[in-house]
User: Which sequence fits this backbone?
């Protein structure tokens, strides 16, 4: 029976602008006498990617608009965070202090993915990487240079959903694998031709890594071992439903 | 480093109305000289739960309405499947041959979760279990009777999402564990108090099982080993966002 395992990478430590994430991961693994194997995937939370890329904004540097101040006071939010969230995306819905935006990348999420947790205690916020697919490509190439074989990379973030409570990890950047398992046109064991079975495996892999690397722990990366991914040029951008096909935007 | 593993349960075979799923799983494991361990979770696709509960409708028994026929012809759909999908839920959106409904349980999904794959080659469709939380409870209690210890049960289905392409497995029934990991009010390593970190781990666990048990294989159940779940009375129903809090219904 084929098993799939989620193995957290422990010991990466604090990530600072300019840091080499591939080197940090490989050093952390070596210290625990572990290593990447062929067939592995690595899932990295966007937080350390954004930090390495310097996508950090000190709240003291932000001058909120009057509109952002009025809205934030009503819901006891930090108007500076509101200001950044609004400027990083266009508003899709706003209700009871929650702002759902569409970011420049096309992601629909709360507050444009701007987040103050796991940064520096509340003085700064982290933005999403400017181009998470490109960030994934960069990390993917760096790992290949070190290892001599290709390890697909998924960059993840926690997004809310319509209709369902709670956050789940999703893939916001991908390199080295297809984001989908495509069963369309294949037949089930009863001979029935499957119609709409396009499975967003990159999101499920991000979620699996999220289970192994809890929010409160310092485990920002996770190896997925044993999943038969489909290699190839994949982009997380391809997981975004085009606006004209979307019934909920 | 704590690892999490997804272990498919192979050899369950064809499930028929009235079958005892707990017994089928335990027999399948025994044949492979495997067993449940304390701390395990089991994820079961709703398809075999619905089959065991007789939630199967032969399409030949369905008389579609004129409206269902007209809509289906336009998009080359089976009007009998359309008829059942419409009668199993209320319509949330309809566009280009896709019907998004809210089921009696409160799930928002395509075609009320009615599906012709992995049944009998297209002659019948399977409905969602009538009360998936109760189905999970029943299975949970049966496993406990056999094993002498409690194994949380998640019943899963593949749902589409707003804004993102592709399906992911989600939890539609739960017993023996909380559906969330709740970090609200906890502090990150920098001392920052986390605000909205309610993580829908039951959905992530369903997705993880989905990765190990592909759509085309006969693997309708999966053990998750190593995940530190929170025991307690949990319901998948609690993962549904209340209508009045939902900005997209």
Assistant:
């Amino acid at each position: 029976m084929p098993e799939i395992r989620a193995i957290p990478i422990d010991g990466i430590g604090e990530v600072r602008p300019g840091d080499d994430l591939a080197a940090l991961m490989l050093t952390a693994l070596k210290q625990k006498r572990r290593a990447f194997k062929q067939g592995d995937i690595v899932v990295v939370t966007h937080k350390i990617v954004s930090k390495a890329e310097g996508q950090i904004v000190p709240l003291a540097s932000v001058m909120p608009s009057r509109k952002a101040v009025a809205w934030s006071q009503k819901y006891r939010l930090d108007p500076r965070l509101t200001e950044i969230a609004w400027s990083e995306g266009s508003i899709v819905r706003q209700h009871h202090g929650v702002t759902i935006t569409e970011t420049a990348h096309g992601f629909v999420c709360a507050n444009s993915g701007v987040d103050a947790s796991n940064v520096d205690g509340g003085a700064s916020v982290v933005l999403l990487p400017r181009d998470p697919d490109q960030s994934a490509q960069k990390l993917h190439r760096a790992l290949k240079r070190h290892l001599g074989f290709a390890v697909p990379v998924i960059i993840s973030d926690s997004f809310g959903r319509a209709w369902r409570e709670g956050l789940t990890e999703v893939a916001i950047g991908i390199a080295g694998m297809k984001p989908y398992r495509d069963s369309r046109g294949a037949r089930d064991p009863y001979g029935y031709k499957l119609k709409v079975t396009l499975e967003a495996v990159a999101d499920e892999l991000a979620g699996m890594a999220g289970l192994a690397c809890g929010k409160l722990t310092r485990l920002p990366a996770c190896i997925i071992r044993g999943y038969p991914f489909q290699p190839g040029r994949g982009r997380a951008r391809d997981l975004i439903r085009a606006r004209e096909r979307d019934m909920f935007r």
